[in-house]
């Protein structure tokens, strides 16, 4: 029997930046829809009286901004001592989600110096949202939620959370599966040089089956299934231009490993045009997935 406590609350890391304030606004709007409390967190490396006043000012600015866009949400504040990435990763063990501003490092810089956003997304035990926008803050609306689907355990959590958010926001859901010629070898060598219509239909049907359980749970969510040719990070970046949220799974690779083998989540963390939710595959699921791969 599972005796673990249900995850609850939206934790928002605030550091005084404009994007962190917008992250707090967004988190409050989502919390209102989900019926969750919000905890604003300003972590600092050392505990001292000199940090108290600046921390309170940062938290007050974020709280005032959040309350200005939505009411009826329980908001608390805390100033724990410790490195922000470690503090927020620890808090992710019991939170429903962690929300952050956007990273200030490039993909290259993330490989050679620490990015708290990338570190938390790679290690958190709950979904992590990095708030991004090219148009400034917008209240969640009827724009679609987009989820990347590859049919494996990697995207299972992403699908689950994307459905829940689309339902809460009363927004349509767009499920996107991407492919390249190299990724279709298991479908048949000959198919690489023929009409791709059958292959696209095969993948679309596979997506429908993969997501059927969630569709039954959230029958009011309008779902569109898309099978697009191209690299997942590039295709999803394009989708982010008209979406209000992009949801993806992640192996939790380091920035260096991601640069070597590729990472859709880290590409979106740096380049998406809208907020990105990264749902890291739990450790036990990653182990099971590796074991299944070894058996094949």
TrEMBL record:
This is Universal stress protein. It comes from the Bacteria.
């Amino acid at each position: 029997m599972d005796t673990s406590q249900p995850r609850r609350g939206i934790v928002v890391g605030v550091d005084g930046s404009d994007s962190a304030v917008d992250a707090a606004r967004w988190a409050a709007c989502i919390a209102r829809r989900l019926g969750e409390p919000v905890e604003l967190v300003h972590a600092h490396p050392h505990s001292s009286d000199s940090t108290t006043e600046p921390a309170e000012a940062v938290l007050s600015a974020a709280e005032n901004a959040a309350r200005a866009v939505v009411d009826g949400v329980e908001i608390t504040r805390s100033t724990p001592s410790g490195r922000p990435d470690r503090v927020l990763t620890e808090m992710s063990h019991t939170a429903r989600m962690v929300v952050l501003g956007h990273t200030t490092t490039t993909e290259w810089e993330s490989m050679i110096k620490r990015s708290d956003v990338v570190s938390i997304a790679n290690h958190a035990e709950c979904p992590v949202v990095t708030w991004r926008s090219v148009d400034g803050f917008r209240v969640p609306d009827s724009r679609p939620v987009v989820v990347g689907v590859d049919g494996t355990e990697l995207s299972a959590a992403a699908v689950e959370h994307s459905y829940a958010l689309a339902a809460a926001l009363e927004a349509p859901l767009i499920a996107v599966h991407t492919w390249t010629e190299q990724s279709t070898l298991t479908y048949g060598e000959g198919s690489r040089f023929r009409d791709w219509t059958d292959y696209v239909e095969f993948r679309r049907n596979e997506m429908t089956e993969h997501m059927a359980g969630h569709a039954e749970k959230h029958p009011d969510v309008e779902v569109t299934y898309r099978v697009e040719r191209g690299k997942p990070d590039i295709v999803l970046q394009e989708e982010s231009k008209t979406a209000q949220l992009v949801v993806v799974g992640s192996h939790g690779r380091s920035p260096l490993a991601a640069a070597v083998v590729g990472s859709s989540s880290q590409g979106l963390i740096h380049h998406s045009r809208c907020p990105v939710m990264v749902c890291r595959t739990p450790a036990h699921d990653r182990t099971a997935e590796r074991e299944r791969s070894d058996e094949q």
